[in-house]
């Protein structure tokens, strides 16, 4: 659908997709593709029943213009009236034509977060191809020269279809970082979850991105192998990461979303999820096996057991390993309190067990919910559904 203009020439339509990485919370979201070109991973609830399509460069550039227009109007009004309150902005939003509101919201959000990063949506913006992406990037930097980072999601199977020169051209044009779902380095796990890639393909794609001068952020999903393949999952994932040496290793602990094929596997008993204790042991195996790389490990998602499990390899490896080992030494009472506190959003890391106010809040919640070492996993699983 082509972008249209209102009677006074201002862009009207603006389109955004449903997701972005947590690290792009303050970014301007521009929809380059709709949905996911693969859409078969059994653990993913997004885009099911929706077809994949590529928006034209003309449409995306019109979206860029729409945000720029809203920012200019916002700046002029604040120069005349002074800073606008949140209630004034809400009133302004409600007075706009419906078709302009999305661009207005995007402009206000981006302005409030510094206007220095952009995320190209949806699940695989690289699927649009270099011929579409290069003019989008050129227009983006021409309209907003202050931008410091432009990122997007992509898939290994998409990356390897690019010529090395095309990837390098995207990097030179200002595509600074790719977010890619490794999920696992185990071929057995990857087949089971229908990822559409194997370890060799992941390694090849990751090395191509690095060679193109683009930052690489790889997502790893603790628990994806279930209880049966947990050790294999950790070992082979570490092996893949050691070959790729991504700039970022981002942890995303598995949750089983309702209505997914993975939930069907779980209900049929063919997939047995790891317990929290087993997840920690898997993480320990994974991090202990990371060797010869300089990646930054990030735990920036609410589903993870430890928000503060992060650091730069190799320097911070022992600190991360030590944290995981400390959890394993907790007695059942402490472990129960920590799991409840974390899943309730009260704790960020193990050190919060020593915060008297936070601990008191968790103990009160434990009494209210009747949480014991025997039922803590079940109750925490219910609490986790808020984050899926």
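Sequence proposed for the structure above (388 residues):
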């Amino acid at each position: 659908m082509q972008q249209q203009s209102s009677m006074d020439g201002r862009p009207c339509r603006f389109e955004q997709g449903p997701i972005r990485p947590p690290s792009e919370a303050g970014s301007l979201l521009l929809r380059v593709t709709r949905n996911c070109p693969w859409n078969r991973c059994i653990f993913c609830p997004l885009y099911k029943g929706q077809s994949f399509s590529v928006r034209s460069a003309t449409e995306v550039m019109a979206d860029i213009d729409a945000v720029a227009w809203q920012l200019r109007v916002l700046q002029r009004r604040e120069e005349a009236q002074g800073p606008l309150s949140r209630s004034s902005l809400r009133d302004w939003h409600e007075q706009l034509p419906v078709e302009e509101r999305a661009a207005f919201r995007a402009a206000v959000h981006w302005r409030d977060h510094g206007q220095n990063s952009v995320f190209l949506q949806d699940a695989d913006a690289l699927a649009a191809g270099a011929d579409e992406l290069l003019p989008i990037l050129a227009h983006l930097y021409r309209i907003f020269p202050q931008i410091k980072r432009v990122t997007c999601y992509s898939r290994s199977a998409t990356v390897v279809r690019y010529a090395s020169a095309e990837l390098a051209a995207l990097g030179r044009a200002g595509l600074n970082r790719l977010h890619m779902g490794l999920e696992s380095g185990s071929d057995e796990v990857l087949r089971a979850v229908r990822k559409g890639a194997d370890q060799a393909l992941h390694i090849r794609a990751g090395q191509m991105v690095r060679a193109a001068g683009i930052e690489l952020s790889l997502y790893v999903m603790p628990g994806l192998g279930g209880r049966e393949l947990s050790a294999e999952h950790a070992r082979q994932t570490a092996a893949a990461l050691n070959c790729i040496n991504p700039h970022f290793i981002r942890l995303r602990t598995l949750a089983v979303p309702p209505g997914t094929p993975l939930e069907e596997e779980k209900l049929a008993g063919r997939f047995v999820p790891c317990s929290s204790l087993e997840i920690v042991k898997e993480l320990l195996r994974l991090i202990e096996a990371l060797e010869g790389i300089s990646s930054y490990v990030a735990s920036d998602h609410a589903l993870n057991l430890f928000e503060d499990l992060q650091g730069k390899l190799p320097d911070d490896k022992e600190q991360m390993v030590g944290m995981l080992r400390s959890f394993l030494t907790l007695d059942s009472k402490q472990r129960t309190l920590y799991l409840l506190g974390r899943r309730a959003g009260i704790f960020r890391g193990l050190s919060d067990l020593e915060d008297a106010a936070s601990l008191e809040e968790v103990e009160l919640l434990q009494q209210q919910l009747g949480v014991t070492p025997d039922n803590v996993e079940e109750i925490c699983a219910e609490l986790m559904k808020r984050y899926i």
